[in-house]
């Protein structure tokens, strides 16, 4: 007789965790953040409410972790496809590299899977200082640092003016896209991203 194997609790927990991620993201997209509840997430994920509270203190914490996981998956898939890396590409042509990254950012911002949870976290972060700080630290800051690194490489190569403040310079790229995304009054397109890069890069060029 073969001995029956005990259930793998770690695999069961991982399945439950991923089901909770999927449920939280789906519910926020369908009903909005205000109408999303721990009870709703638990029901959608097929787990008990106590399971969620054992791992997270609030629905905001659930959504934050689910969104970070979504971002990590997107980055891994992009890297596997060769479309993007965990750094802004450096082909030696700053304009081309930044156009590539901003076009990918536009695609992400226009994705329903990204839009609803990102807006929910941004809005809730205004009211919840701790959540807002986590949103910046865990999601925004690592992305902004990629721009800093690429701009410093461009400075070393003589492609931008010496002494450039990379933290201010990166806002010339990400600020306009974020502004349009938040207001939703004008479309976010690749053509717009290209124009933002052209205006910013020409302003950053070395002075004679």
Automatic annotation (TrEMBL):
Domain HTH tetR-type span(s) in chain numbering: 14-74
Lineage: superkingdom: Bacteria
InterPro entries, per the entry: Homeodomain-like_sf (IPR009057), HTH-type_TetR-like_transc_reg (IPR050109), HTH_TetR (IPR001647), Tet_transcr_reg_TetR-rel_C_sf (IPR036271), TetR_C (IPR011075)
This protein's UniProt keywords: DNA-binding, Transcription, Transcription regulation
UniProt-listed Gene3D superfamilies: Homeodomain-like, Tetracycline Repressor, domain 2
This protein's record includes keyword Transcription: yes
Sections of the chain in a coiled coil: none
DNA-binding region of this protein: 37-56
Name the record gives this protein: TetR/AcrR family transcriptional regulator
